[in-house]
Write the structure tokens for this entry.
Amino acid sequence: MVIEFIRYLGSRTRSSFTKLGRGTFFLLQTLSGSLSVLPRPRLLLNQMYSVGVLSFLIITISGLFVGMVLGLQGYYILSDFGAEETLGVMVAASLVRELGPVVSALLFAGRAGSALTAEIGLMKATEQLSGMEMMAVDPIRRIISPRFLAGFLSMPLLAALFSTIGILGGQMVGSGLLGVDDGAYWSQMQANLDFQDDIVNGVIKSVVFGFVTSWIALFEGYDSIPTSEGVSRATTRTVVNSAFSILGLDFILTALMFGDD
Amino acid sequence: MNINGVALQDNLVSVNHLSFSRGDKKIFDDISLNFERGKITAIMGPSGTGKTTLLKLIAGQLYPDQGSVIVDGKNVHRLRRAELYNLRKRIGMLFQSGALLTDMTVYDNVAFPLREHTQLPESMIRSLVLMKLQAVGLRGARQLMPNELSGGMARRIALARAIALDPMMIMYDEPFTGQDPISMGVLVHLIKSLNNTLNLTSIIVSHDVHETSAIADYIYLISDGRVVDQGTPEQIKNSSSPWVAQFINGAADGPVHFHYPARDYVDDLLSAGKRYH
């Protein structure tokens, strides 16, 4: 009984570590393959379209609503202290520092990450990847690397879009509905948000999330068991593991970036 | 060729004392096969005997536990990656599923290897693609997407793609499985005529006895990881082995039993009310 439990623990640990090893090796191959994408921008553009542009709608609408809710909640709390003029700072800071990168990354994992995993998994199941290998075309370079680059580059842009739309949504509710002074909304924001501390750090976060989410999604697809059940499990793992990684990394990054002051 | 008085046939591919296992299961146990240049050689055997695995071993997608595979004088599993890829450019492979890229039209699928491996201008690629499609009789289907093709058509398109780079050999993985009689006839004819007109060497993996014997020059029968019998289709047909006779004639019972191993039938039925299963 105890022996069996220990054996089970051992085999689980071992398989997690071998998977981590495979994943790292996969990442290195993908990164080295990324160089060969540069002379063929067409491959990258196609993927930017399906990973990035097709995520526009969900990012825009979510950003708008998150911004509007922030405007409402912020107004109720700030008006208690007579500080509703600083609503713009509150909305913008929460979006640019946290909600923009984190929520858009979570949405990205659900919208684009799951699609990438399913696509790669099905390509594997229908022998398209090994067919490519047989034609002496490296599937990592031809299929994986362009998708990785596309995800990695799209993420910060989507996060920026999310934050921008969110700030507009906050302004719509704050000054449009609740009567916060429009000039105060913008000028307070301008005066109190720091380019380096707030915006650059937010962008760094979304770059990290884009990197990790794309890596997880592509690796889960590539490493999936090529059956319908295997692909479905891999897709689930992509969303779950991406969410955990995004939230965990967000905590670490926040502690590193905003810890001192 | 003649070395030390021993006549050697001109083999494009030779598999020497190859062993391969997956987990604990031994798939191949010290098998040796030779594939003569310019000929059609068939590998036949029941499903699940690792025929597809053998093709992947020949192409260097899998590594053997022991033994070697020599293709055109090169030991496949000793090649560096770039050399292996160069070798693969000269090998066409037809997958059972066709393995067409589903996000491209038929035209782009056939053009794919040309675009990846050559710097040819689009006008020349167009001519080449149309020639290859003409050879398989599907020039008119070039604007279709793979999901609009029937199984037989998909396999012919995959064949056009496999010959796009004018390979020295083609490996066919179960080319006849699941085809209607007409598609089957078309494929049999295509494999034979392409082999002769393009001066190819063909390896066919199949369990369709009739179609394969009609075009193969030499046949290997494989079962349980070993070569059970080999020879020309004529020799195989007249084989004295009861196993071969059962396989060729498709008899339900024989050396390969109809029943999966189980305990005695009467015992099994009478034990119904008891606790064990």
